[in-house]
Amino acid sequence: MPPVLLEDDEAVAVAVALRAAAGSIAHMDEAAMGVLAKIDQVMPARLRKRASSLHSVTVSLPGAQDVPAADALMQIAGACRDQKKLTIDYADRAGRQTARQIEPVRLAHTGRRWYLVAWDLERKDWRTFRADRIGRVTETGARFTPRKLPHDVVKFVSQSISYEPYACRARLKLAGASGELAKRIPSWIGVLEPLDSQHCVLSVGAPSPEALVAFMLMAGVDFELLDARELLPQLRTVARRLSHALA
User: How far is Cα 147 from Cα 4, in angstroms, rounded to an integer?
Assistant: First the structure.
């Protein structure tokens, strides 16, 4: 490859990004470290110190290794670009393995996980697949014409991973403009949508009533429950428990 001329800030950004990539994609450590070694050889000492400062004071906490394989991710990305159908081995939330025939459209990265947005040919509907749960990826050789998503990709993925999969779901009317609340409410809590100039709607999903209450409170503002009336007895039980603890 021809040499690439980088400004100081660009060189530091590349080094930091390579270290981050090594932890977010499986089997990328060796390749990323190899590139970093080459960059270190030509990087001035003052820039090398800047680039390594973040890594030198950062520790990685132990946790689930939910990172996708690099080769599978690259193959999926190529199929999205070239509009080629795929067959993937996929494990659902319960660990059940299935073979899915899909039309891949877009990859989404939340900062923690990778997701694939695709049309499921058997189920005849849009699906969001966690990339780290994808096993073998096989190209069928057939091309497809991309279908139109019902929403923009960001909203579709957000709703698919933070609302729809959960048994306990609720929509909250929040006091405040969506632009301001979006700065305060973490995106992983739920899907935030404007209602009017003074209110917005937060769609929240959780595996239990206790977790749902926690997410409601994390909104940090007054709210009105718009639905989920069937959950009211369980939510009131959680509220009584909390009130008793604070008495």
Answer: 38
The strand ranges marked E within 121-234 are 125-130, 134-143, 168-175, 190-196, 199-206, 223-225
Same domain, yes or no: 49 and 75: no
**Domain span holding position 32:** 8-56
Taking only the tens place, the pLDDT of each residue in 189-203 is: 888 888 888 899 999
pTM: predicted TM-score of the whole model, two decimal places = 0.68
Q: At 186, list the tokens.
A: 């973490």
Enter the tokens of residue 31. 């390749």
Looking at 56, 80, 96, which one is the last position of a domain?
56
Is the pLDDT reported for residue 61 higher than 60?
Answer: no
| Claim to verify: residue 188 and residue 139 sit in the same structural domain | no
Q: How far apart are CA 116 and CA 80, in angstroms?
A: 9
Residue 1 falls within a domain, yes or no?
Answer: no
Quote the CA–CA distance of 18 and 243 in Å, as a whole number. 48
Of 131, 130, 128, 182, the C-alpha closest to 157 is 128
Mean pLDDT of the chain: 82
- Tell me the pLDDT tens digit for each residue of 123-150: 999 999 999 899 999 998 899 999 988 7
